[in-house]
Design brief:
alpha/beta; binds 3-methyl-2-oxobutanoic acid
Amino acid sequence: MSVAKKEYKRVTVKSLVDMKKNGEKISMLTAYDYTMAKIVDGAGTDVILVGDSASNVMAGHETTLPITLDQMIYHASSVVRAIHRSLVVVDLPFGSYQSDPKEALRSAIRIMKESGGHAVKMEGGKEVKESIKRILNAGIPVMGHLGLTPQSIYKFGTYTVRAKEDQEALQLKEDALMLEKAGCFAIVLEKIPAKLAQEVAQSVSIPVIGIGAGNGVDGQVLVTHDMIGMTHEFNPRFLRRYMNLYEDMTNAITQYGNDVKSGDFPSDKEQY
Ligand code: KIV
């Protein structure tokens, strides 16, 4: 099904704010490499997130904590070489911004300079306010990230839904207002009740992009490898799988192995 939308030759942080004003939902997906980014960009996705989920998806780590700034820059520069239209947002990885605002700025500058990404994303609310301001002062757009913030997994202890209790919900609402006031161009809300996410989206003028945050927000983000079913062990309720690539690829690779062993591949037509 095609959806009517205004054509943006190139998506910018300003286009995203316009989309929210015009009631056009924003589509965002992850990519960590050139080939995937080419497909995601070519399919008209508004925002490509070079997420620190690369730590899980690409490197097989249990959490997002181990990925380094150098590794994020490598992934982001591969993505940037592929894109024509999407806005490329790059996660500041764990350990690259938490200790002080000057270090945060240095890390953000390295991402912008060495990868060519268009914006950075960082997790947290009031505790990262000064770092956000410093990065913004250098002219680097910042996307916030509240709710389930995987870089703090050892503080939370689980990946379950956040902000179900009043006090945490209130703090999240305050943090969202602070992020808007500080100058963030958008906020990701991860795994929080849909009603709360909708309230936050209605309380700020910048776009709110949800993952496991319901349909009352301004856009959605998923990890592409999950969405196309290349991963198969991760099955949260919010995930819609559009393909079962794990099965398709397994079948194709099994068939290839059988064809090689039987001598069926290569055929006469597949040789010189
Ligand atoms: O790293 C990532 O993929 C993310 C999304 C889940 C929003 O931060």
